[in-house]
Amino acid sequence: QKEVEQNSGPLSVPEGAIASLNCTYSDRGSQSFFWYRQYSGKSPELIMFIYSNGDKEDGRFTAQLNKASQYVSLLIRDSQPSDSATYLCAVRVRSGGGADGLTFGKGTHLIIQP
Amino acid sequence: NAGVTQTPKFRILKIGQSMTLQCTQDMNHNYMYWYRQDPGMGLKLIYYSVGAGITDKGEVPNGYNVSRSTTEDFPLRLELAAPSQTSVYFCASSDKTRTYEQYFGPGTRLTVT
Predict the structure, then answer these.
(1) Residue B23 and residue A61: Cα distance in Å, rounded?
(2) Is the bond preceding residue A10 a cis peptide, omega within 30 degrees?
């Protein structure tokens, strides 16, 4: 069974610091990796995706992937109180129909302290 | 352009009752999905569809049924509701050329008592 593991937190980070969120996955055949942000009572919102080993940067966000270690991380630079949310790591699951249902971790609750 | 809409927002069911959760998208997306999210947990895939008339099971399909008669609509049917189906249900859609980018609806919070 495919699994995606995250530390549930809460992870508390001072405003302006770097928040580091981590995720491991069990299926070595996984191809694509996603980070979703979910505010309390709201639906998930895609913020980053990464396919290749290495780093991918988008504004204050950097996704890092290491397929050999089956590890993906999300760095948030210059953390703001508005970044306080639950961050869900998701892995692409291949299916016979070609649709990309995702396997999600339980999420890490991030708190940015002003 | 409303994106993905879901109705109702909230619902309380008694054990054994049935209901249909509605999902509509106006982005002409081929792929649609139903997920459930239990408190403190990630999302789990219930059913998905790659187009009108085509549906398939996800990770947790038991107790649910779906249909896809049009591109826009993907209703989720609960038959004989059980307390274990108490959850938040999210519908999502994606374009077949950018399947990684799933757009989520606002969710339906369902309680079965």
Answers:
(1) 31
(2) yes
Q: Are B27 and B103 in contact (CB under 8 A)?
A: yes
Q: Does B50 touch chain A (CB under 8 A)?
A: yes
Digitized pLDDT (tens) for each residue of chain B, 113 residues in all: 679 999 999 999 999 999 999 999 999 999 999 999 998 888 999 999 999 999 999 889 999 999 999 999 999 999 899 999 999 999 999 987 776 788 999 999 999 99
Q: Taking CA atoms, what residue in A is nearest to B99?
A: A100
What is B41-83 written as a DSSP string? S-EEEEEEEEETTEEEE-S--TTEEE--SSSSB--EEE-S--G
- B65, B82 contact by CB (below 8 A): no
Q: Residue B32 in 3-state DSSP? A: strand
B42 vs A contacts (CB less than 8 Å) = 4, 88, 90, 104-107
Q: What is the CA angle B47-B35-A36, rounded to 5?
A: 130
When CB atoms are compared, the residue of B43, B44, B94 closest to A100 is B94
Cis, bond preceding B8 (omega within 30 deg of 0): yes
Could you give the CA distance from residue B104 to residue B90 in angstroms, rounded to a whole number? Answer: 7
Compute the half-sphere exposure of residue A33: CA atoms within 13 Å on the CB side of its CA: 32
